[in-house]
Amino acid sequence: MAPKRQSTSSDDSSSKKRKVITMEVKYDVVKRSEKGETNTEIGRALGLSRMSVVTIVKDKERILKHVKDAALMKATVINMKQRSQSIVEMEKLLMIWLEDQNQQRVPVSLSVIQEKARELHEAVVKKNGEGRASGEFSASRGWFNCFKARANLHNVKLQGEAATADSEAAESFPSGLAEIIKDHGYTADQVFNVDETGLFWKRMPNRTYLSKEKSAPGHKAGKEQLTLLFGANASGDLKLKPLLVYLAENPMAFKGIFKSQLPVIWKSNKKAWVTLMVFENWFNDHFVPAVERYLSSKGLPFKVLLVLDNDPGHPSN
User: Fold this and answer.
1) How do the residues of the chain divide into helix, strand and coil, expressed in percent and rounded to 5?
2) Rounded CA separation 16/295 (Å)
């Protein structure tokens, strides 16, 4: 009697296991189908059944969208890595530049650092051949705050100003001034205030950024300055012609120019300050005539209240 044939059910079950088709294979099927290959030809080439190929081709839209999204995500990740590398390299160069500025005793402000960061980033991008990626970096305040923390920077003041204001007198002044105006019957057109301000037109910033471990080096502040005196009445109806005090009486830039045609009253002294003599000259020769003409045109009496601070150049009387 012939021996019984052994069962091959285990072999059949293993051969019937479902084959996992990757997204790359599915995409290959779709591309072959678009090129005109038949389902049978695609199946033979890739080792798939005809029904599997038919199912994949029917799902063409979803497969193409998935592949497109994956490619976009990959490109985004690559771009972010490149951009991060550029920023890291730029920040290293920026720190070297900041150290150099500190060594040269040149103070730098936030806007100066932002401009330098954009400039360095653009140079790094060009060097690395990253195309137009430079337009993506704006050196925003958010970036600077993170950079400041990473670089251990802090903002320090290079020069201080002494406080000279009398706080108690300042608190009582408004009510006292209101009483004077009311008691003497001044109108808003008759109440004037003038004050000076210095313009350091070559002055460097008075704060800078540097590592917390370091101290701020001293630097020579620019002394090129001029002083301006502005004034107006309380109603804002008359704005006085500004007084300008400079170091030179006849600067070379004014060659062929008449100072009387300037939009300011030009005065000069060695310190470019409003001294007592300069102020009295301005008061008698310019302020009084200008205000007298103004009040006359308004039909108001020539009665004026001029409010001044305690500047040394202002007369005590």
Assistant:
1) 50, 10, 35
2) 109
Interval 170-177 mean pLDDT:
86
Joined tokens for residue 202: 């070559």
From first CA to last CA, the distance across the chain in angstroms is 144
Token pair for 30: 């779709």
SS3 assignment, position 247? coil
Q: Name all domains of the chain by residue range, CATH numbers in brackets.
A: 21-58 (no CATH), 81-151 (1.10.10), 170-307 (no CATH)
- CA–CA distance, 134 with 206 (Å, rounded to integer): 31
Over its C-alpha atoms, the chain yields an Rg (Å, rounded) of 40
Number of neighbouring beta carbons within 10 Å of residue 79: 14
Nearest to 110, CA basis, from 212, 207, 217: 207
Its pTM surpasses 0.90: no
Residue 249 DSSP one-character state? S
* CB neighbour class for 213 (10 Å; exposed up to 12, middle 13-18, buried from 19): exposed
Give the tens place of pLDDT for each residue, 234-247: 999 999 999 999 88
Question: Is 274 within 8 Å of 311 (Cβ atoms)?
Answer: yes
> What pLDDT score was predicted for residue 133?
46
What are the tokens at 125? 């991008």
- What residue spans of the chain are helical by DSSP H? 9-15, 23-34, 39-46, 50-58, 60-103, 110-128, 141-150, 167-184, 276-282, 288-298
| Per-residue pLDDT tens over the stretch 111-149 | 888 899 999 988 888 887 765 544 578 888 888 888 887
For every residue of 86-114, DSSP letters joined together read: HHHHHHHHHHHHHHHHHHTT----HHHHH
Paired with 232 in beta bridges are 193, 239
